[in-house]
Sequence to fold (452 residues):
Amino acid sequence: MITEFDFDLFVVGAGSGGVRAARMAAAKGLKVAVAEDRALGGTCVNVGCVPKKLFVYAAQFAELFYASAGFGWSIAAPPKFCWATLRDNKTREIERLNAIYEDLLKNSGATLLTGRAIIEGRNQVAVEGVTYAARSILVAVGGWPFIPEFPGSQHAVSSNEMFFLEQLPKTAIIVGGGYIAVEFAGILNGLGVDTHLVYRGTDILKDFDRDMARKVSAGMQTKGVIMHLQRDIVEIKEHDDGYRAVFSDLQTLDADLVMYATGRRANTANLGLEHTKVELREDGSVVVDANFQTAEPSIYALGDVIERVQLTPVAIQEAMVLIDHLFGDAQQTIDYRDIPTAVFSQPELATVGLSEEQARNEFAHVEIFVSDFQPMLQSLGGGADRITMKLVVDSATDRVLGCHMVGDHAAEIIQGMAIALKAGVTKAQVDATIGIHPSAAEEYVTMRTPTG
Fold:
């Protein structure tokens, strides 16, 4: 039994959750180490939310240039897009954020170790051949894109590679129906790529409110994304200078790039957890209890690796709760209900609370309020975009159960509505709120007649 420890807490993974846990523990005067074998900041900073949002902004400019004409602006020459400029400027911004994460860790007093950490026992972690003893170990290694194996699957890329492409393809196939696939389809389409979205299901974004997901699908198609629903690729062949995707019905589709966004799996392979009592699910995710403790009492896990809610702010809150539990007064908690989220598709989708389908399954009396309208920008801009807002209400108590939006600035608006929902807002209180005019957000406080 180890009686002397090099560190009170050893964090494996320097993503959002791991960095927050390390900084909080170090701030309490504890000896903390963080090991990372890739760039600091994890998926979100390097190959996720941050670079993706930068690409979304880039993809929206073509429509803004078009809309500007109706407001009196003229562009002497057609705008030109340079992929290399966007890619390299993005990389410089991410490198700046990497440096900030490094400074945050070092300034907190934590020890930063570069290399893949291997857990050798319940209190032992090895990095680059050096073994360290730790009183507690935190596994915060996140997830990794999953591409199923089939003939030619080696020709497909994941979302990771999309941020570093040497050149922008002329034609692309995006496979998947979740938020990553939908977002990248919108990005490529907005940047002028002939974009095809292939999904084996009947509807994209299956975990969201059905009406709102269908609004996103319709909006994407209006903007030019070609949908291939209920289709499955069984083979990818090299063809000319690109690839040929073969469907299960033997029809084919040619493209310069095939990207798979068919899910992410916990990044626990080759981590050494087999040397401990830690239990893994079939997909590699770590089983933890309410306090993020594994079956090995000295080892904890949080974030995407535990397969609860794969969102950066959730991992950060889990880290705060864990450190308070281990080294504080155990007062902090996390509530997984009513977590707001957004899909930075084009059109954008944001939501908080229950979908209409979920509400009808849980409550006997549900009322639905919907507003669908043309955004003011389009009145002179000439675009086809619309905004749809939806409130889901328990008519027995008047409590708002869900709030959903498709359209410009959906994430910004739903963040505010999430506070109200968390506070238990009623429909009467929403109705009593004065709107900000003219704004899209004011529609939420003017919906009076239920649609269902």
Q: What stands out?
A: The domain at 153-262 is CATH 3.50.50.60 (FAD/NAD(P)-binding domain). The radius of gyration is 24 Å. The first strand starts at residue 7 and ends at 12.
